[in-house]
Design brief:
This protein is an alpha+beta fold. It has a domain of 117 residues. It is built from seven helices and six strands. Strands 1, 2, 3, 4, 5 and 6 form a six-stranded antiparallel sheet that branches. β4 and β5 form a beta hairpin.
Length: 177
């Protein structure tokens, strides 16, 4: 017994389906990653060094675009998400070369990243994603030698007051009578 299909797929439908899949791949970015070779050797080290310098340059804040702000009207509530160690300018100013690991832990807290392959390096990354789409990131890296601080990367950090104003809004001082 032979069954015949009621509707035969046309070549136009197949072409439209293939074009739709190709557009989806291009828009999602999957197709753009193919064919890119990972940098090797000195190029990889230079790229890693450059990205570390950018990350340690201070906090980077990305503001949402006008379109994103408009579309947020139609989206559900999104809470603020804070991850990592917040290091303020006041905390960083107390950190000095020659201090011990215990002193650094007392000033900055326990590091979020302690790499087994880089035992003489502590990273303090910070990530704050506001519900309105604003994204703030920063990173402080402390390097040790013989359990003493030899170098500190990261700077131009906000003060504690600026950080609180960013989260809760401007601090209002009572008017004097």
């Amino acid at each position: 017994m032979r069954v015949k299909l009621a509707v035969k797929p046309s070549s136009h439908a197949r072409a439209a389906l293939a074009a739709g899949l190709a557009c989806m791949l291009m828009l999602s970015g999957c197709a753009s990653l193919r064919g890119q070779a990972a940098p090797a050797g000195a190029e990889a080290a230079a790229a890693e060094q450059q990205s570390a310098q950018i990350a340690n340059a201070g906090p980077q804040t990305v503001q949402p675009t006008k379109l994103q702000k408009f579309l947020w009207v139609f989206s559900p509530y999104r809470p603020d998400i804070q991850q990592g160690n917040f290091v303020s300018q006041e905390m960083l100013s107390q950190l000095k070369v020659g201090q011990t690991r215990e002193q650094v832990r007392f000033l900055l807290g326990t590091p979020l990243l302690r790499d087994i392959f880089h035992a003489d390096r502590w990273d303090y990354p910070f990530y704050l994603a506001r519900g309105n789409g604003e994204l703030t990131t920063s990173r402080v890296t402390v390097f040790f030698e013989d359990d003493k601080v030899v170098r500190i990367d990261g700077g131009n950090l906000p003060t504690e007051r600026e950080y609180i104003e960013r989260i809760a809004g401007p601090i209002k001082t009572p008017a004097k009578k």
